[in-house]
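Protein modeling request. Please complete all fields; requests missing the sequence field cannot be processed.
Requester role: graduate student
Desired output: 3D structure, C-alpha cell encoding
Chains: 1
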Amino acid sequence: MKKNMGTLDRAVRIILSIVFAVLFFTGTVSGALGMVLLVAGGIFLATSLISFCPLYTMLGINTCGVKKNA
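Delivered output (70 residues):
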C-alpha cells in the first residue's frame, strides 16, 4: 500500500475521530446516529494511522504531496 494521505488530511481525520468519540461517549449523540459516527471515527482513525485510504485509491485522489516519478 502506497501512502495517499497527507499530513493535514491525517490530522483532520484524527481530530474528527476524537470529536465523534467524545460526542458518543458523553451521550450527546446516541442511537443509530451515534453508532454511525463511532464507526466512521474508527475508520478515520485507522486510515490516518496507516496513511492509506482505499476510497482515495478508487477515486484517484492523493493528498500525500509526494511526487510520482514519470
